[in-house]
Every structure is written in C-alpha cells, then in structure tokens.
Design brief:
Layout (H helix, E strand, L loop, with lengths): L5 E2 L1 E3 L7 E3 L1 E3 L11 E3 L5 E3 L6 E3 L13 E2 L17 H4 L14 H8 L5 E7 L17 H16 L6 E5 L2 H11 L6 E5 L21 H18 L11 E7 L1 H11 L17 E6 L5 E8 L12
Parallel strand pairs: 9-12, 10-11, 10-12
Antiparallel strand pairs: 1-8, 2-3, 4-7, 5-6, 9-13, 13-14
Helix pairs in contact: 3-4
Length: 311
C-alpha cells in the first residue's frame, strides 16, 4: 500500500473543534507492501513500524487514545475557511429564489454577479517611535527619531510606484502624526481617521508573558473593537470593484499582529509571538477568491540599522 501523505490528528473534543497535531510529515513516503500490520484486540491492524518520514508524538493526558497517524487523501484540501469574510458568492445568494418566468435559479449568472474581480493590497504600517513618558495620548508625540522613521517609511511607500487609494489611520496621536509625515510623500491620497484601529489588547496571548498582563476587562473591551476593525477593513474586494486597490493602514503593533493572524487563519492567541519595528511595513494580499497571502511582515530593510527601534 502506497502512503502518499500521512498526518496524525488526535481529536480532543475541545470546544470550537480544535485538534491536536500528533504526527508531522517530514519526508516523502515510500511504497510499503501489505501484511505489515499487527492485529489489535478489536481486530483492526496498525503498522508494525512507523512509516518512514513520520514523527509520532505521544498523546496528551487530556486526549483519548487514537490512531498514531492517518492518511489524508491527495486533494482533500486543508482547514482553510473560504467564507472567512462572509463574501463567498454561494453565501451571498438565495438559492430558493426562482426566476419569475422560467422558474429556474440561473445560479451561474447570479454567482458571477457576486464574485469579486479585483485584488486588494493592504499595507499595514506601525507608527514611528514616540514619547513613552507622555501620560495622556496627546502627550505621546513622535520623537525626533520617530519623525525620521516616518519620513523613511513614506519614501519607501512612494518608491513602490503604486497608485494608493487611501490611508486609514488610528486616531491616536502617534499614528496620526506618522500618517501626516507619510502622506507628504503620497500627495493626493485621502486620509481617514478611525477609532477602531486604536491600540489595545486584542485577545489574551498564548503563551502568556510576564511583563504585560492587562486586566481581563481590557481584553473584553479592546478585543471586540479590534475584531470589528478586522471585519470592517480586511476582506476581499467588493464585486463592484473593477481594478486592484492599494490601501495603507497606519496603526499599532497589537492591532497589526492580530489582523495578520486572523487574515491567515492562524490562532489569534499567537499574535504576541510576532514582533514589529516602528515604521515597519506589513503587506497583505487578498485575492478575488478570498485567498490571503502575506508578502512582507514588519519590513524595515529600507531603514539604516541605527534608525530601527521597536518601542
């Protein structure tokens, strides 16, 4: 029996359908002959030896015993939710609605009407270095170095030669000042301020960290707002959009890290495992079919080493 790919998943029965990865594919599986299994008490057979290329992990105490590995048929797909932004064409039409004259659904034409045609390029910019000693937001202005960083970021964006459609920025002082400096290098691009992109605590990180432990209520309040920002701004293009768009969002490290995890459908609790420099550029691409790609994460390669900070 030829094993093409093997992936062991021990289903833990946790809320939300989470699963435990218990085998990792590390190489191509060679063909194996039959008859190499040993019967279990229940009559089923298991391999007498671990297939080459599989690393088995012991089951955790919270999970019931399961098969050490299972084969996933070729082309079976992954766990990607293609309707993550609730804009999948099939989810937007009413299949029960009949054509007035023929009684047919005309599904194909209705699907075409709902399909996105353009690609969205989203540039997430972290604000530049700011005065950490400011007690109120209005006092947390950019430092001289922070203003230099914003200039460098603006020049970098301008050098890409793209026709940017808009700059949406957090209403916090450091993000607003960063936007003002960047916009000088992108004349004519409209600016929009929003409270949704303000800094906050999106979700309790896993693993936790000892140096940053906000109150639980902060996750409850900020998390809903930052999730709202994700749902409002991060999605495939509207069906009416004919050309690809290039949009800039100037906001904060926590917001950007959470958005990246959500857009890629990675566990959002892992947002704090990512690190972003001041003035860095993160580039997300959302295709018409809803697929998302991360082109760059926290790029500051355009800055001299002595200008790079992460405060």
């Amino acid at each position: 029996m030829s094993v093409r790919r093997a992936l062991a998943l021990a289903a833990c029965g946790l809320a939300g359908g989470s699963v435990l990865l218990s085998a990792v594919v590390v190489g191509k599986q060679p063909a194996r002959g039959g008859g190499d299994g040993e019967p279990r008490p229940g009559g089923s057979a298991v391999p007498s030896a671990v297939p080459p290329g599989l690393l088995l992990l012991p089951p955790t105490a919270s999970c019931p015993p399961t098969a050490g590995w299972i084969e996933r048929p070729a082309g079976s797909g992954s766990y990607w939710d293609s309707n993550w932004d609730r804009r999948e064409p099939l989810a937007l039409i009413n299949l029960k609605k009949k054509h007035e004259e023929t009684g047919e659904e005309e599904l194909s034409s209705r699907l075409d009407h709902c399909k996105a045609k353009a690609t969205r390029h989203i540039f997430l910019i972290r604000h530049s270095q700011y005065n950490l000693d400011g007690r109120a937001d209005k006092d947390r202005t950019l430092t001289p170095l922070g203003r230099e960083q914003a200039e460098l970021t603006g020049r970098r964006l301008a050098s890409l030669g793209l026709k940017f459609d808009q700059i949406i920025h957090s209403s916090m002082t450091r993000a607003t000042e960063t936007t003002e400096i960047i916009s000088k290098h992108l004349p004519g691009v409209k600016k929009i301020s929003t409270d949704l992109l303000r800094e906050g605590a999106p979700i309790e990180p896993d693993p936790p960290v000892s140096h940053w432990k906000p109150e639980a209520v902060q996750y409850y309040e900020d998390g809903a707002r930052i999730e709202a920002a994700f749902r409002n701004f991060i999605h495939r293009a509207d069906a009416k959009q004919e050309e690809d768009s290039y949009e800039i969002f100037v906001c904060h490290a926590n917001v950007i890290r959470y958005i990246v995890c959500r857009a890629l459908q990675f566990p959002p609790e892992g947002w704090l495992r990512l690190s972003l420099n001041n003035g860095s550029i993160t580039h997300l691409v959302i295709r018409p079919n809803g697929r998302v790609a991360l082109r760059t994460l926290g790029d500051t390669g355009f800055m001299p080493p002595d200008k790079i900070t992460r405060t």
